[in-house]
Amino acid sequence: MTLRRDINREHETAVIDAAVRAHNTRTATSFEVEARPDPPDAILFDGTMRTWIEHTDAFYPGWARDLTSFAARDRKHHPLHRGIHVDMDARFAMEFCRVVQQKLENRSYAKVVAELGPGILVVGLESPWLAEDTIETINDHWRQLGSPDLSSVFAYVYLGYRADDANQAVPWQPT
Length: 175
What we know:
Helices cover about 40% and strands about 25% of the residues. By secondary structure, it is an alpha/beta fold. The N and C termini lie far apart (about 45 Å).
């Protein structure tokens, strides 16, 4: 029987693994997950340096409940509401910015930031309408919020997504 918590854990692991691969490629490092203290979601070590990574997901409103209830045997399926959906990118961008700001303001990272410095945030993008225009809308909304500075907590931010039947991650550099 597949339980919701098992699905969530496997999803988190897959998104973090994709972000670690992307980060290693980007920074010419070889970090691997050393521990899973929660928080943060993982401590990374490459034989010389340690850093940390936190995962969150930004879901199009209603999409999380649809996905997790469909896949979990311990939940009744609650599909995304049928009918017309409007301003999907704008609604998703607002949710993305909300979850990123929530992570930025989370005081539970203070100890690990003091010990290891600013870490890595990976934000899983979960929307049935995800496209390049969505990222532009996210960046526009982030600018409207005044482009909050993430660098005191997160040195790197990655966008996680699924493509070609695999989890992927790319750096997010809000413009």
